[in-house]
TrEMBL record:
Keywords: Membrane, Transmembrane, Transmembrane helix. The chain crosses the membrane at residues 21-43. The keyword Transport does not apply. GO terms for biological process: type IV pilus assembly; type IV pilus-dependent motility. Signal peptide: none annotated. The keyword Transmembrane helix applies. Pfam families: PilN. This is Fimbrial assembly protein.
Length: 186
């Protein structure tokens, strides 16, 4: 057996194993590169889709900001309109005030009380007059309190005057006009 030379056969097996190893290595390298390219492409697609979503969200956010700006503007207009409506309502309430006041004054002023001046400023009415007796001014105060729309009557001053032929006392009174409640507004 020593005559058998196994080197060429071993060399051919080694060459075949080496060739098979290189082919397997090349296939594995190609498969790895292919998988890396597929993974890279998938990741780039995912990034592109997310960027599209982000862009869509940004455009929608801009649209919502515009809508919110319009809503804010509409709320400001609403507040201005409500303020105008309150002002118009106040003017409507004050429009008939003098007529109502002068229509009710004969009922408020008892006999023996004579008014010489009446000054209306905002919600305050100043009255200056003369009276035959203090009790008549007290009756006038009670009648003012009973009206419901006039209140807080106060005597500023009352004093006797020396005017002849009848001795009358001079007085000064002020009272407030009450704001009507929503049920009283007409």
């Amino acid at each position: 057996m020593s005559n058998i030379n196994l080197l060429p056969w071993r060399d051919s097996v080694r060459a075949r194993q080496k060739k098979q190893f290189l082919v397997t290595l090349a296939v594995a390298a190609l498969a790895t590169v292919g998988l890396m390219l597929l993974g890279n492409g998938w990741i780039h697609r995912q990034i592109a889709q997310q960027q599209e979503r982000n862009q869509f969200l940004q455009t929608e956010a801009v649209k919502l900001d515009q809508v919110l700006g319009e809503i804010r503007h509409i709320k400001e207009q609403r507040i201005q309109l409500l303020e105008r409506m309150r002002l118009i309502d106040a003017f409507q309430q004050r429009r008939n005030f003098s007529v109502k006041l002068f229509n009710q004054m004969p009922e408020l002023v008892p006999p023996g009380v004579y008014l010489s001046s009446m000054n209306v400023a905002a919600n305050r009415i100043d009255v200056v007059g003369k009276t035959e007796a203090y009790t008549r001014v007290a009756n006038m105060i009670r009648q003012i309190e009973d009206t419901g729309w006039l209140g807080e009557p106060r005597i500023s001053s009352i004093f006797a005057s020396d005017v002849q032929p009848i001795a009358l006392s001079q007085f000064s009174m002020l009272f407030q006009v009450r704001e009507p409640t929503p049920g009283e507004m007409q």
